Each structure stands twice: as structure tokens, then as C-alpha cells.
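FORM 7B - TANDEM STRUCTURE REPORT

SECTION 1: FIRST PROTEIN
SEQUENCE AND C-ALPHA CELLS:
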Amino acid sequence: MSKVLRSVLTGVGGYLPETVVTNDDLAKFVDTSDEWIRERTGIHKRHKIADDQGVSDLATEAAKRALAAAGRTAAEVDLIVVATTTADLTFPSVASMVQRKIGAPIGIAFDVQAVCSGFVFALSVADGFTARGLSKCALVIGAEAMTRLMDWEDRGTCILFGDGAGAVVVEPGEGKGDNTDKGLLGFSLKCDGTKQDLLYVDGGPSTTGTVGKLRMQGNQVFKHAVVNISQAVLDAAEAANIDVADVDWFIPHQANQRILAGVAHRLGIDENKVIQTVAEHANTSAASIPLAMDQAVRDGRIKPGQLLLMEAMGGGLTWGACVVRL
């Protein structure tokens, strides 16, 4: 069997802003309650970015921690891909800011915009570089300041989101070309632009000239999420030539406890295999998967050699899944 290059995840890091906002904190200025939020979403609290922070600051901290975990330095980084929908500025990219802030040399740096699916999309983009030998040390980062997009009078959405960043270091590694290899083994990525009105932000530089606020038809998003994500998971597993039952850990986008449970049930995945951080982090969009992975690696649940399955769905509607052997 001929040898192939794989995109291997060699380090993971996460960063959460210091300010914690509990459900009771929200209830002081939003018509809601801790019980109402917990019952409908499973969320207990979320982290909120400081007034003097930008999302590039969150991304930079996560990147530094991922590099330390991988035993790499910023001087070795030649590719930075940041998944975000809440950039510091309309331009330049958050990735270029991270490059400057960590002191990485001139290389490739750009952002990916697929909202909550962004991290899975960004990993697939980085794979196009590392698995072709075009990058020796890549940073793939999901970073969001979703609280900056909230309409605090819309209790159906403002309770759902939080801020944070997660990052992984991706390096080329030699494999045999089968499902025992380390690295990214299979993907499934989709978008259905006809569903835009289900989840979007009502502003932008070429229309309103404003940032806008997040708008969502929650019930419709839930319906599409369970069906679409489940199919993407099956497609990614098929692309990787594995059975879903063989997966050691399922790392879903942390949107809502009901969606997590619905997808796991539909796929027959044991709930004990599901990494869940939605209660502590809420929905951090593109940051949620790497943040959940970081927590599970640090607490010892995820170990080298294990098979991971990640999935997400976000505005667009976009959705996707990928299979990784750590």
C-alpha cells in the first residue's frame, strides 16, 4: 500500500474570557429565568468578552496554548486559518492579526466564514495545504464574540450564546492511506442558501453599514439540525471508511442540549461518548468544537490514537462533519 500524507492534529488549546454570565445574571435584565433556560437549552452559564478585547485576542491566546501543547513555536507556523463570524474589523482578517500578535513569520493567513460550522470547514481547508505538503505547521482556530451580535431584548436568542476561542495545530504526517492512520480521515461539508432566513444577522457593510443583530427561527433550525447533521456524520464516516459505532468520542457543535441529544439518539451514539460543554460555555459558534476538544484532552478523556467525530450546523445554512484520529 502506498504511503500518503495526512493532516495530523498535534496540539489543542482553548481560551475563555474571564467574565462569566450566569442565567440568573441574564434574568436581571432579560425576561427569563434560570429554570426556563436550563429546561429548553441545558445552558447554565456563558463567558463574555471584555470591553477592551477583540476576537483576535481570544484567538491569539488559544493559538499560544495549542502551540505549547504541540511543542511548537510561533516561528514554525506557516499557515493560519481562523473560522469566525465576529471579526475585529471588516478587514483585515483575524488570521492576519493573530499572525502579528503571536509573532509568526510571513506566511499564509486568512479567515473562513461558515458561522457555527466554521471550524469543520477550516479544518478541511487546512487539510488541502498540509496533506499536500504545502504547510509544515498550521494553526486552525475557531474564535467568536457572539455576545456582540445579541439583541438583548430577544430572549429566544440572547440566552443561547457565549464567547471564546479554540485552536489546533495541524502538521503533515505519513500514513498508510487507511482508517488506522492518524489525522483527518474524512469530511462531509454542505450549504443550503435557501434557508438563510432561518438564521442570520440583519446587518452588514454593503447593505446596512452596521454590524446587525442575530435573528433565528429556533424551531426550524432545530428540525434541520438533527436531520442534516446526522446525514453529514454518516457521510463523513463513509468517507473515512469507518462505522459510527467505532468512534471513541463524538464532539458536536455545542448549540443546544436538545440538538446534541437528538443527533446522538438518531445515530445510536451512546451519550457517554458525547463531549458536552454547552452547559458551561453556551453556544460559542465556530469556537465550540475546539473548546470542547481542549477540555476533554485536558481532563484525560480524549487520548492519543482515539477516533473522534466532529459535527456542526450554522447560518447559511451550513453543516458538516469530519473524522479525525488523534
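SECTION 2: SECOND PROTEIN
SEQUENCE AND C-ALPHA CELLS:
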Amino acid sequence: MHVYKNWTPAELSSLDGRTYLITGGNSGIGLEATQILTDHGANVVIGCRSAEKAMSAISLVNKNNPKANVQFVALDLTDPDSISAAVAKIEAEHPKLDALINNAGVMQPPLRRTKEGFELQMGTNHLGHFRLSAQLYPLLKKSEGRIVTVSSVAHKWGKINLDDLQSEKSYEPTVAYCQSKLANLMFAFELDRRLQAANSPVKSMGSHPGYSATNLQSAGVGMEGGSALMAWMYSLTNKLVAQSALKGSYPQVLAAADEHARSGAYYGPTGLMDCRGPVSECFVHAKANDEDVAGKLWEQSEALVGAWSF
């Protein structure tokens, strides 16, 4: 098994001819990952809700690398019709997909629900990516590709509440966020187990960006009814503690594109309580390896957004 000590994109081989889909690839670590992958020759599809924001991101990538091959697909992870339309477009325009990077997310908003009634963080961060991954699986299988799901150091404080997954009995933004990030990591691991059981050529792994300065910290708490105190705190810690979005993108790029990345692994920074520092395989809280809870979460997720077919 290859051992990473301090991975950087300099370790990547040429990615010519490969295609990657990054949800939320228009900003933050998703945008930085887009730049890295295209700089190494890959074709990248940015999935996001706003065409205007996507075009702005594509212009920035092309400004830095005029030869960059990057496109946009409209994608709202809270809308099943949007996901189906995005999958149909990708299947029609791309004969192969080498990796899906489940990067987009929302963090600590006031209580909001999707059109299906899901709590916004669970509906976006976990269930939206669960549904997207299932629908893109056949295309990924053709390419012997990868599914990379972005979790967080917050998974350490998460708890999967199987009796109230959608926070209908009570809602606290941070509790719901940590639950969704634990769900991300448990999904990555449970998917790996199921892929292996099915003898699938597809790999599933998790990654996390540490504490990286992006608009993730401000977008959720900045919604109407959000916490002004949290917004102020993040404005301070982003300056004092956070690493750059560029460095935060390294783990997901490693997982998606490095030839030695292994299925079932979890990649991220390993210094300062996993907030920054050398990128390698990183700490996984024991609760993320609870196969009983992971199996029940999978069953609930399938019941809510549709079953997988391996």
C-alpha cells in the first residue's frame, strides 16, 4: 500500500483524457480543485445551481490557464428533477466519467427544508450526493472510476439520529451540520463495502479540507435568521486559523486523481487537530466505522431518494 506523507499536486501524473464532475466547483475548494485538475490536462464539469457563478468561475480558470477544458452543468442537489436532468446531460455529452467529487455543501443555516421536506444540510450534503452518486454510478462503472465524498473534521462531533434524521423533533444548526458530515463519511465507507461485495471496479473514498477559508462558513449563517455571532466568529477564525482554499482542495484531488489512492481511505490534513498541515490518510472517529448504523443510514437514504443498483 502506498503511504502518503505530505501530498501535493506535484505528485500527479498527466490527466489528459480524463473527466471529472465536481459539485460546487464554482467556488472555494471546489474551484481550486477544478484549477488543479485542468492544469494537469483533465476535463472538468462544474455542477452548481447558478449559471452566472459557474461562468464566472470558468472565466477565472481559463484566465489562469487558457487551455483549460472546463464546462458547466446546472445542478441543484435539493431538487430531484435537477439531479436527473444533470445526469442526463452528462451522460449525453461525456462518454466516460473518471470521478465524481461530492464537494458541495451548506453549513449551519437557520432551519430550512428542501422541496421534499428534508432538513437542508442533510438534504444537500448527504441525500443529494447519495442520489447523484447512484444515478451516475453506471457511467462511473464503465470508466472504472471513483466517487469521492467530502466530509469534515466535524464528523468527530456528529451523531446519526436514525429516529429524527430530518430534525423534525428539534433543530440546532451545528448538530445538524455535524450529523450530515458524519453521514458523508459513513456513506463513503459503506459504499466502499458494497462496491467490494459486488466486485465493482468503482472506488469510493472520503476526504476533508481541514479548516479552509472559503464562503462555506459565511453562506449558511448569513441566511436570514442566521447567527450573527457565528458570522463574526468565522470572520475572525478564517483570518487567524484557516489555511487557504487551495491547500484545502488537495485531499479531494488526491482521492479523485492520484494513481495510488485506495478505495475505503479517508484523506485530509493531519496537523493542528486535522485543521491544516501535511496531507495523508487521516483520523477517522470510531463512530464513522459503525457498520450497523451505516447500514441503517443507507437503508433510510435509499427509502428517501431511491435505491442503488450495482
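SECTION 3: OBSERVATIONS ON SECOND PROTEIN
The longest helix spans residues 173-197.
The two ends are 26 Å apart (CA to CA).

SECTION 4: SIGNATURE
Preparer initials: ____
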